[in-house]
Amino acid sequence: MYDGDIASTLVTEQAIREKTAELAAQIAADHSAERSGSGRDSDLLLVGVLKGAVMFMTDLARALPVPVQLEFMAVTSYGSGTSSSGVVRILKDLDRDIAGRDVLIVEDIIDSGLTLSWLLKNLESRQPASLSVCTLLRKPDAVTVDVPVKYVGFDIPNEFVVGYGLDYAERYRDLPFIGTLDPSVYA
Ligand code: XMP
Ligand code: MG
């Protein structure tokens, strides 16, 4: 599949599976601990950011040993080219109110962190009981914009990656691993 397009594998299918199980155990433990103190009794609400987070979100949901509900948002960042501007527009909003809910934003990748920073402010204004973030991948630049990310799968180098939900021109999302793209693809 995609012969010659992938230059290298950065995160294998097995590594993704193992890390997802690890994150799921941690998230479930934290959620149970939080709930037992608060008297809240609602399922954890996963908010996935379309489309990149879909693969990770569905695997994470199945790995979580607690009931979860799924919601999706689609956002687009204004601005030119590949760098995000931090000005975000909602393409698809949540289907329901999140007031009083325990919400976990599920992201594929945090690059500059600008998109996430906007999303956190937006969702926080809807008054969830709690709001945290889980991302499969994080790039070094994310450290410069200080967004609180509780759960991180892998810190990766500052390279463009595809696979497992991540695309280049809508392709490669269906690869089961994370890889770097051969420069011949952009050429
Ligand atoms: P910021 O910079 O706001 O943007 O954190 C995060 C969004 O940018 C996209 N992005 C990538 N998509 N491979 C991709 O397929 C990458 O290496 C990559 N880096 C950033 C992605 O949509 C993410 O949600
Ligand atoms: Mg993309």
CATH-defined architecture of the domain at 14-32 and 41-78 and 85-157: 3-Layer(aba) Sandwich
Query: End-to-end distance, in Å?
Result: 20 Å
Strand sequence of the main sheet, in spatial order? 4-3-2-5-6-7
Total helices: the number is 4
User: Helix share of residues?
Assistant: 25-40%
Could you spell the SSE succession in H and E letters?
Answer: EHEHEEEHEEEEH
Unreliable stretches: none
> What is the radius of gyration computed over CA atoms, rounded to a whole number of angstroms?
17 Å
CATH topology of the domain at 14-32 and 41-78 and 85-157: Rossmann fold
Q: How many distinct beta strands?
A: 9
What would the principal axes of the Cα set say about the shape?
globular
Oligomer: single chain
Strand content: 25-35%
Average pLDDT: 91
Q: What is the level 1 CATH name of the domain at 14-32 and 41-78 and 85-157?
A: Alpha Beta
List each distinct ligand once.
xanthosine-5'-monophosphate, magnesium ion
Largest sheet: 6 strands, mixed
Structural class: alpha/beta
GO biological process, one term: guanine salvage
GO cellular component, one term: cytosol
GO molecular function: guanine phosphoribosyltransferase activity; hypoxanthine phosphoribosyltransferase activity; magnesium ion binding; nucleotide binding
Protein name: Hypoxanthine phosphoribosyltransferase
SSE inventory with pairings:
Blueprint: E1 6-11, H1 13-38, E2 44-50, H2 54-63, E3 68-77, E4 88-92, E5 102-110, H3 114-124, E6 130-138, E7 151-155, E8 161-162, E9 178-181, H4 183-186
Parallel strand pairs: 2-3, 2-5, 5-6, 6-7
Antiparallel strand pairs: 1-9, 3-4, 8-9
Helix pairs in contact: 1-2
The structure holds xanthosine-5'-monophosphate (XMP) and magnesium ion (MG).
Xanthosine-5'-monophosphate binds next to strand 5, helix 3 and strand 8.
